[in-house]
Description:
It is built from 44 helices and 18 strands. It is an alpha/beta fold. Among the domains are: 1-173, Winged helix-like DNA-binding domain superfamily/Winged helix DNA-binding domain (Arc Repressor Mutant, subunit A), CATH 1.10.10.10; 311-461, P-loop containing nucleotide triphosphate hydrolases (Rossmann fold), CATH 3.40.50.300; 471-543; 549-639, Winged helix-like DNA-binding domain superfamily/Winged helix DNA-binding domain (Arc Repressor Mutant, subunit A); 860-973, Tetratricopeptide repeat domain (Serine Threonine Protein Phosphatase 5, Tetratricopeptide repeat, Alpha Horseshoe), CATH 1.25.40. The strands form six sheets. Strands 10-11-12-9-13 form a five-stranded parallel beta sheet, sandwiched between helices. Helix 25 packs across helix 27 (597-609).
Amino acid sequence: MRFGLLGNLTVQDDSGGALTLRSPKGRTLLAVLLLHPNRPVSRDRLVGALWGERPPATAVYAVSNQVAQLRRFLGPDGVDRLRTVSRGYLLRVGENELDTADFTDRLAAAGTSRGRRDWLDVSEHTAAALTLWRGDPLGDLPALAEQELPYLHSLQEARLQLADWHFEAELRLGRHRSAILELARWAAQYPLHEAFHVQLITALYRSGRQADALAAFEDIRVRLGEELGVDPGPALHAVHQQVLLADPALLWRPESVQPVFADAPHGTDITADSVGNGSTSLDSDGQARVEQSRLMPSQLPADTADFTGRTDELKALIGHLTAVAAGGMSRVLVVAGMGGVGKTALAVRAAHRAGHLFPDGQLYVDLRGFGPGEPREAHDVLAGLLADLGRADGSSAQTRPIPAHTDDRAALLRTVLAERRVLLMLDNARDAEQVLPFLPGGGRSAVVVTSRNTLSGLPSAVHLALDPMDVEEQRALLSALCGTTRVRQDPDGALRVLAACAGLPLALRITGARLAARPAWSLSVLAQQLGTGSRRLRGMSAGHLGVRATFESSYHALRDSARPSEREAARAFRLLGLWPGFLFSVESAAAVIGRPTETTADLLELLVDYHLLQSTEPLRYRFHDLLAEYSAERVAEEETAEARDTARVLLMLWYARGLENACAAMTLGVQEPPTLDETSPTPPAVFDDAEGALHWCAHELPNIKEAIRQAAHCSRPDLAWRLATWLFGYARTYWWTGEWDECLYQALHIAEQHGDELGQAWILRRLGACHGMAERNELATEALRASLKIFEKAGDTSSQAAVLGNLSMAHEQPDQALAYAREAFRLHRKSGDKQGEVAYHECLAHALYATGDLPAAESHFRQALAFHRRAGNLHTVGVNLTSLGETLQRLDRREDALAALEESLDVRERLGDAVGIVDCLVVTGRTHLHFGERDAARMSFDRALDLAREHRMDAYIDQAREGLDAMREVTRTG
Length: 974
């Protein structure tokens, strides 16, 4: 297939035929995935692209539906091409399948050829790249284009750069006459882009059109004055003077290289002072040459020989450096990321690749912001830089003395850099304050900074956040380190090593060094040696390299800081290590560390700035895998057992109260467990409606599961069963995932270990409901009877009634089910509890439906439905509408049945209730089939089957297939 983003989104099949994706959301989804080809895109990123800042509660499930449709659009290999990965999706795009990838490849090739002065090659690559553009990128997706403005801006900058290089090559090759028409078009389209006008004037003059060349200069001079209030720049003035004087140096000669374009992106005249303090002269062929009287500093560390991966990041860095050298972008580039992620290796590789763009030298300084030793002082570093640049200038300390004051040294550095094109690499910066004295004030010098801090305080900097490597990049690096054969022979061991290294290049290099020293070891042996936890960190050290030492330098910078806020952030880092796999909200983190939410938010962002936490989505935070283990070590060693227990209990209480509030918002109409008397100091989550409560439960479920597990090892094991039972509101919609089963069984085990009979009774009661929802009736009956015995022993009439009601729902014998339902109703009324009566209406309705008393079943379903409508409980409204629709179908009331089912489907789609949607579609298909409407039945069954397959709902897959089979049988015999 062939995908296009450089204009309206386009898709072509292998024969070149256009494929049309009509759904606007489907087109947006495909475009976002194409913006990140062969890289994971999180569900949250896709939700933001499709719905902006206010997505519906069902957005995640709607994304799943859109993905399923897109896979079908992509053809037979759609599932393999569009893969589900951890927390998102990855679109596999092959070579020559995406125009933006081809464009950036051509850009890189053109830059390399230009460095070799291979003008034929430059012309070929630039022409091919420019023809890929069909209009404004993402032109038919304006909302997405708005979100991607920085990326689109960089694409446009790259396009202008390519156009400059293309016309430069054409003029150097003597194609000035044929270039005039296109140059005039580009100059008209970008009237304020002076380089095109310099090139146009040159082409006109070389074509014998001196008057037209002078007129072209006058046009741009007037336009600049009217629109910007400025005069033409030095390059335009210079070429104007050359035309006025009929300067022969401006004429083209075969194999010559004209001074107007020599190493000067965007048409800058190199015969001016743009090459620095060195003098220039024209050689015999008219080429501007820099006198070799100065020694250019070239201080970059050696490039990494086996540098692997980081293709997109490397292209972005080189592209930015190219633009800086051309005078078109910010001069400060920051590469930030966690310790060991490969910032320096990437920056050094980019600096070597782009070094030729900075002919006045490449300087390197390790600022020692993190690690052993004190951070370097600006005063001393400035002296060294000025001395190096002075030696390059041929100056001495006597002719250009270094000022005594730090600010004066910084000012002098700005003066020197303004005159030259220098690349300055500042490695391992502590914070923005350490970097500020070295920034140029103007000119075409570039500063590349690497830091574990995001350095958000640097003015007008371009920031590149370096994340851990993806699996394919890791595999490539491991192969480079220990050999492709070794990796191919032990793929399982390779995957285990990659999992242990968690995408950290430093960890991979250490493991590679260990493997190189042990040729008899397989990857599986090394993976076993690495293990997990602190053992894994201990195993990741070789010589002077060590993952733990790298983490320690970041952590100690905060823990031992003179700033109270940074010391407090170090404490937060430790305490959050009690929950290493969590995805924290500000509120849940506040519950752990015992600080107000406003303070906690600042601490979390500080940890993100220092790359000790990751912010995977707005106001949500998590640890990198290896950092989580290091944090767990710190909290175990630096916090008391009492402090650790308090932090655990506070978070469990916060979740318990949040789940209570969620169940209250869902107004389930069933008896709930006893509420907690105590509460967390952090205010729990509150909800305006059932939809918001359900969304919160689904989002927080992984954390709640971990809280249940950890309850067994703290001073409040009862919180395990309380958390699990309060998940009932979530489970009414998501029981089919199996997540609730896991929580309940774990909580039951904890309650049994501690002899907690109340907890056991409630867990068994909820297990009965859980098994009943999944139609595991035998298991449901077993759990409910065990629960009933405990409640009878305790004399809890209300709970006995509830359990009997569940037994009625689970029993497969209709008469026995009705007997249980009536006894449940009797006990419920005896208890005097009017609030939960709706549950017994539902119980009786199902029992009556099973016995065939359909009018009575309809009556009870309608009573339950009326209650749930008043309470605003959308989930149970949807459930009862489906049951009512099925009852009305058996009563042969077509319009009433389909109306109930249509409303049910609408409600369940609003909630994102996947199992409810499939259930309703199956019942709707049966209803259409019952009334002889085969096409409508087929559509319902087909959609149910697609969704059931996507969510792996085996029981519903069977039901949908049975419906389709029944429809075919009716068609065959009818």
